[in-house]
Amino acid sequence: MEDLPYKIEYAKTGRAGCRKCKCKIDQGELRIAAMIQSFHHDGKDPHWFHSSCFFEKHRPKTVDDIDHFESIRYEDQEIVRKNIGKLNEILLPETSSKKKGKAGKKRAAENIENNIVLKDFGIEYSRSSRAACVGCQNKIMVDDIRIKRTVYDTEVGAKFGGQPLWHHLDCFVSIRGDYGYYLGGESLPGFSDLSAPDRKKVKSALQAITIDETMAKKLKGEPKDEVDEAMDGLEEEMKKQNKKLYKVRDKLQELCTKSQLQDILFKNGSGMVEGKDGLLDRCADFLTFGAVSKCEKCMKGDLIFTKGGYRCNGKSDEWLECGNFVEKPKRTKSKIPSSLTGKNNDEFFTKYRSKIEDRAIKPYVKKPKKEETSTKAKVEREREPLYGMHFVVVGKLSKEKNDLTYLVKTLGGKISASVHDKIAAIISNVDEVSKMSSKIKKAKELDVQVVPVEFLDAVKGGKRTETFEKIKTMSICSWGSDPMTRIPQEEVNEVKESLYTKNTKKVANMVVKNGAAVDPQSGVDDIAHVYRFDNVLYTSVLSLTDISKNKNSYYKVQVLEADKGGRYWLFRAWGRIGTKIGEHKLESFPSASSACERFEGLFEEKTGNTFGSKSFVKKHGLYYPVEVDYDDGSKAAKVNELSKIPSKLPKPTQDLINMLFDVNLMKQTMMEFELDLEKMPLGRLSKKQLHDAYQTLKDLNDLVVRGAGSEEFVGLSNKFFTLVPHNFGMERAPVIDTLEMIQNKREILDNLIEVEIAYSMLQEQSDEKINPIDAHYGQLKTEMKPIDHKSDEFKLINDYVQNTHAETHNAYALEVMDVFKVNRQGESRRYKPFKKLHNRQLLWHGSRLTNYVGILSHGLKIAPPEAPVTGYMFGKGIYFADMVSKSANYCCTNSSNDVGLMLLSEVALGDSLELTRSSYVESLPSGKHSTKGMGTTFPDPQQAHTRSDGVVVPMGKPVTDKKLQSSLLYNEYIVYEVAQVNVQYLLKMKFNYNKRRR
Fold first, then answer.
1. Which of 552, 515, 557 is nearest to 676 (CA)?
2. Which residues are catalytic?
């Protein structure tokens, strides 16, 4: 069941206070809650109101937004429906009538003024230039007229009882119909505070729309049709049944204790429910309509009444709820326990005779998810002439700086204090330019024009695009580049960040002591270490993802011991991954044993398992340990620091090593994958956890292949995201239910393994007498010598690059920055048997930059057996191409990170199995040594170069075989033995995205 924004019930106690009037809500009184995301835990808290106070702070659209609504008394349901109906009224002007006297007109005006919906609108002058118009998405300038509409279904609106959204006057006029506002501008709260000319302007622009009676009825609600009449019949039946049910419920409340209610459920084969109110609801349901049978899907769970029907509360397995939904469950005659049917019991029980009846239920239609804020403009509007531009005022000018600042703001711009490369222009005069002050010098250095004060008058009323030309033509200095290159042409209005989302993606930097990291949130990480007993570290990171409940939680717990001994603490932290949600607590303990006892108790409470147990069993709804190997981040941070010891490597090789071991790049890569770097620093998951994650993806792949039901995907997705914590912010974790998603997650695991290799090397102790760059170079066990750019060898490789760039891969042009001759330790010896094989070619292989430490140190690898088969067109092997851009696409570069690495390897292909479409190869036929995916376009074989050792370099320009019937555009070569590959060159490539290949 989806999380509903509101909840209604009769107060269980008299302790809760109303969020509106601050008075207590009496026990048994009807109360309504807005369900608000907590800042303290990964879940929602009810903010309770008296039913009369609630509608002053919240605006539900329909009773379907309110959980438990169908379980309250029918008369209370009608009151709530009536209140919601008032909230959704269309604001229409009173229809004119000649019979109306002054008193009638006055009453009509008062009706409009007191309308609760009208209070959600307002008009005023903009107090700043920060707010964006909902209609056109442009900023509303200071002192402009703006119109407010308060909304309650956004994150801010729900939490604070309304969020004002602002509109330009003309934009509001364009979309008033969407808001049901047909009154004139003079009806808006705040209208009387405007100046006389502006009141006249508003009345002219926003006139009342008189609508005939027929149209008014359509806007307020269509006339009843046959479907509505049928619903009326259902409503009448629900009313009768509700009164009958509450007659039973009231009697049970009067006669039964909690334990007696439990006896009734037990007698009828039902499990228990929480709280006396829950017991009363379920017992009343049983005694009114008959006992509900067990769920026929899982055979264990109970079917519980909810909106639209009955839902099973059972579990499919440790990762998934059953969730079976039944509109009309099977029922049996209800039984009364013998303890309630004796002579001394009330006649309600002694005379009770069960009848079976279907409960009348209104169908529930799940509403599509509403986006928090739309980024698409509803109204086309010309932007202000200085919109999004920054200016710097220099010197004493003909206008005061405050006046200039105000004028620039009203035209859409901003005044900055310092000169930088995004400044549109300097506002000054000729005298200041001749003085060449520091700011003018900086402007000249950055090629930023200087314009006079008159420039601001010249751009008034003009278009933003014309402003750029005005900056150039009105410049009073001798320098200046094109201002369009300094100013963003289009601002993208991003969805505002959630209240609960962290402003920056933080990476935990752990200080490791004695093999474990003390959480820095504890505040004692500099004076304490994780307690170890019998070689067991008392620390655990727990994770729980539940897509159906939108949970993505963590729980951390540690026993800490003072470095100097004698003091012990228990630290714990909990919350939602990647957000501000959560808390932490540090408790002192008199001894290690008492702290450990508390730790073990918490671990069992949160996981259902004993701490240290070798056979951990996941329990439904409980946490699962994330096995993390912490390393000292401070060591890795020193890699790129300048060393006093000179490197013995050539400068290009030094730069290459710095690239390969760039910690920031590793972190950035992990964040691109939405991985949580606080719970899982740089992907240091244990091998077992990675193995389990691969297996989960393989199981998901099997579900896709056999077309399984959606609930099975949810369970395995829960498992994957629990094993590999992801940062989704406040968004619900996605269900992994397509081959494309499985492939994406498999690539994440592949990259995690490669990054782990690189990060492990960064942690290794090295000789302090050796430059760190040289030390890391040695760790790779690979000789890499830069090739002279003027050599024939470099020219051959460069020609290979330029000739084999595919026509369809035109998003970038490739530029060879450096080529390194590669000799991996032991690889030539391993490759030697295949050196005798015919058909050896020099082929391309591309991969993400963060993978190359693993590739160079361990060689190109074949996916493990537990990895899913998705994404491997021709089976699990090592893939190569003869078209450079085919492999370059796998480097995963972009315009911001435009440098990638590629390999050229000698590949012993021998006789190839030739295929023209995807076919998963488990094993090659006898006599075949590789697979070749036959592309229709390939390098011209006539232009291939054969080296002296017999290796073919397919460096010809592309030609197309129009007769070949193939689904592949370009050739692919796959070998299934790592020994068939001998890496020979590493290329450092610049991906020029601003020079698209034509």
1. 552
2. 887, 890, 972
Topology (CATH) of 6-87: first zn-finger domain of poly(adp-ribose) polymerase-1 (3.30.1740)
Whether the predicted model's global pTM rises above the 0.70 cut: yes
Which class does domain 636-763 fall in?
Answer: mainly alpha
Closest among 799, 827, 798, 835 to 988, alpha carbons compared: 798
Question: What span, in angstroms and rounded, lies between the C-alpha atoms of 68 and 61?
Answer: 16
Amino acid identity, position 797: I
CATH number of 254-350: 2.20.25.630
**Are 90 and 82 contacting, i.e. CB atoms less than 8 angstroms apart?**
no
Contact 511, 517 (CB under 8 A): yes
Tokens of 979: 């020994």
Alpha helices in 5-93 (DSSP H): 51-57, 74-87
- For residue 862, give Cα distances in angstroms to 824, 872, 876, 975: 17, 11, 6, 9
Total number of residues shown for the chain: 998
Span 780-992 CATH architecture: Alpha-Beta Complex (3.90)
Handedness of CA 155, 161, 163, 169 (dihedral sign): positive
The rounded average pLDDT for each run of 10 residues, N- to C-terminus, in the chain (998 residues) is: 87 94 96 96 96 95 94 97 89 62 56 80 92 89 93 91 94 92 95 96 93 60 55 90 97 95 96 93 97 94 95 93 94 95 86 95 75 62 87 92 90 91 93 92 94 94 90 94 76 58 58 80 92 93 94 95 93 93 96 97 97 92 84 50 80 93 78 64 69 94 89 94 90 94 90 79 73 91 96 97 94 95 96 95 95 93 84 92 96 88 98 95 95 97 96 97 94 97 97 71
Measured CA to CA, the distance from residue 514 to residue 516 in angstroms comes to 6
